[in-house]
Every structure is written in C-alpha cells, then in structure tokens.
C-alpha cells in the first residue's frame, strides 16, 4: 500500500488514517511507489490549474525534476505538445518521454519561440526560478494559465497561480487527493514512469537531503527503512 498524505513518514513504521492509503501497483518497486505521490499530485494539480487541453502547447520549467518528469508524461498522455526546460545532459531523457527539450538560461524566451512558432498556451513553473516566471509571463497571454509550485513571491507579483503549501497558495487538497488513484492507475499500466535518482537508507536521510539540495537530480531521491 502507499500512504499519502503521510506526515512524519521518516520512520520505519507509521500509523495513518485508512483514507490516506491507496493500493501499490505491483509493477512499481517500493522505491518507485515511495517516489510517486508528492511529485505526482503536484504535477496533476499544476496541469489542472493551467487548464491543460489536448490542443495546447505547454511550457514546463524544471522538466527533468521529480515533479517535472511526471508533468511531462501526463501532458504527453493527454495528447498536448510539451516543451520542457532542462540542462542539455537531460535532453535525451525528456525526448524519450515525448517532450521537446529546451536549455534554460539567458535567451530562453527566444528559444521557446523558435521551438513553438505558433505560441505557447500555458506554462507551469516546477523549479521556482525568476526566469521561469518571467519567461512564462512573456510568452503566455493568459495569466490564469500560468502556475508555479515554488516561486511564490515572484509569482504573486506576476499575478499567476500559486500552488501547494506556500504563502497565499492554493493547497488543492481535493484535486491532489483525487489524483492519487489516477497516478497509481497510470503507473500500474506502465503509462507513467517513475525515475529514481537515488535511494538512501533512513539513517542517511541527511545525505539524501544534501543530494536533493544540489538541485540537479533527475527523478526522485527516496528513503528506504
Ligand atoms: N508546491 C508544491 O506542492 C510542491 C510539491 C513538490 C515540490 N515542490 C517544489 O517544486 C520544485 C521542484 O521539485 P522537484 O522535487 O521536482 O525537484 P528536483 O527533483 O530536485 O528537480 C529539480 C530540477 O530542476 C532542474 N533545474 C535546476 N535549475 C534549473 C533552472 N534554472 N531552470 C530549469 N530547471 C532547473 C534540475 O534539472 P537540471 O539538472 O537540468 O538543471 C532538476 O532536474 C522545488 O522547488 C520543490 O520545493 C513544490
């Protein structure tokens, strides 16, 4: 079983309400199952907030992160076009998942325009940089179709949607709770791949956090008992 939400889960054993538990797809390893939910429900919430449609071209910032990789796959599954920012070393991973990879950094808006001459309908900032917010606002005409899960201050100033646990953000509790079964169904059917960047025993949680803090992992860092 997978428990989500499960506050206090840095533990070998945990008591959670029955309503927090969903079945673990047999296809997933325990590491993949452990990496599925936080990134997954955040990705689903972001795509719901930007009003994803199958005819859209969507810009995903931070596409190679835990949240980004799931968001990319869900956009592709929906049939929309996805442009994903990442460092060049990760472009093959994004291409494999069906995204058009774009390097972030100076000149990003022009590179996106070149890759999507018809324009970008919606954008999700899944990394939290100023650049992600600024380029999204520059390229997407409708600010209600831009969301951030990390750049809360800049996002508030830009009038875009703020999602998750940040100040003034929409926690999206109902969307996220409903997303759990969508995610287990997609992962169980092999339509959603969960990439594991590293697995650490619980006693090495500090090392796991140091790895996350590099800000350049590809996929999830998970703790195992
Ligand atoms: N609000 C919520 O509910 C919620 C939930 C979960 C996570 N978050 C937040 O969402 C963010 C991403 O989380 P995550 O777990 O996906 O992170 P992660 O797995 O650590 O991935 C971060 C990714 O960001 C990319 N990156 C680094 N600098 C970048 C830049 N300047 N432009 C574009 N991409 C860049 C890295 O790729 P490269 O190596 O290619 O640079 C890396 O793949 C974090 O800030 C996290 O706190 C929010």
Characterization of the model:
With 225 residues, this protein is of the alpha/beta class. It has a domain at 2-40 and 173-224: Medium-chain alcohol dehydrogenases, catalytic domain (Quinone Oxidoreductase, Chain A, domain 1, Alpha-Beta Complex), CATH 3.90.180.10. 40% of the residues lie in helices and 16% in strands. The protein is built from 8 helices and 10 strands. It has helices spanning 30-49, 66-78, 91-97, 108-115, 130-139, 152-158, 173-188, 205-213; strands at 2-3, 21-22, 57-61, 81-85, 100-102, 122-125, 146-148, 161-162, 196-201, 220-224. The protein has a 6-stranded parallel sheet, with helices on both faces. α3 (91-97) links the parallel β4 (81-85) and β5. The longest helix has 20 residues, at 30-49. The two termini are 15 Å apart. The relative contact order is 0.17. The model has no long low-confidence stretch (mean pLDDT 97). Bound molecules: NADP nicotinamide-adenine-dinucleotide phosphate (NAP). The site of NADP nicotinamide-adenine-dinucleotide phosphate has 29 residues, from α1 and α2.
């Amino acid at each position: 079983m997978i428990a989500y939400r499960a506050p206090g889960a840095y533990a070998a054993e945990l008591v959670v309400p029955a309503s927090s538990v969903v079945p673990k797809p047999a296809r997933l390893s325990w590491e993949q199952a452990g990496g599925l939910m936080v990134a997954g429900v955040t990705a689903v919430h972001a795509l719901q907030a930007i009003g994803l449609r199958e005819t859209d071209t969507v810009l995903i910032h931070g596409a190679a992160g835990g949240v980004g990789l799931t968001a990319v796959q869900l956009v592709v599954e929906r049939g929309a076009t996805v442009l994903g920012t990442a460092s060049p070393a990760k472009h093959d991973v994004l291409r494999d998942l069906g995204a058009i990879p774009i390097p972030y950094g100076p000149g990003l808006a022009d590179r996106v325009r070149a890759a999507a001459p018809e324009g970008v309908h919606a954008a999700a900032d899944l990394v939290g940089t100023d650049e992600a917010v600024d380029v999204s606002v520059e390229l997407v005409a409708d600010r209600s179709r831009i969301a951030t899960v990390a750049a809360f201050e800049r996002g508030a100033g830009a009038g875009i949607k703020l999602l998750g646990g940040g100040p003034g953000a929409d926690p999206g509790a109902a969307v996220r709770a409903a997303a759990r079964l969508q995610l287990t169904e997609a992962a169980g059917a092999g339509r959603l791949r969960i990439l594991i960047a590293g697995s650490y025993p619980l006693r090495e949680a500090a090392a796991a956090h140091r790895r996350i803090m590099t800000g350049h992992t590809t996929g999830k860092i998970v703790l195992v008992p």
